[in-house]
Design goal:
With 89 residues, the protein is an all-beta fold. It contains no helices and 6 strands.
């Protein structure tokens, strides 16, 4: 089972693209303060609630699974998000 829950800060505007079938893909960095770790989050499909564009700088929780993409010269960890929860102020 590959299931993770991460809490962090949405640090930048999401990059929005679309698949050839028209599915929306949002990619954005999540900053996790413990360890000063940056993880790229990939979400396919529509988001519940407010869009990510209005949430930059806010705390969120991401539920998903870890994936790894080999890039030169390093490996990058990504989370494929199934659910994104907005934290209350």
């Amino acid at each position: 089972m590959n299931r993770v829950f991460l809490a962090g800060t949405l640090k930048a505007q999401p990059e929005i693209t679309y698949t050839p079938k028209g599915e929306k893909i949002a990619v954005f960095p999540l900053l996790v303060e413990e360890g000063d770790l940056r993880i790229d989050v990939v979400h396919v499909g529509e988001l519940d609630g407010d869009g990510l564009s209005q949430q930059v700088g806010k705390e969120i929780i991401v539920s998903g699974m870890l994936t790894q993409m080999k890039q030169q010269p390093q490996h990058t960890i990504k989370v494929r998000a199934q659910k994104i929860f907005w934290m209350e102020d």
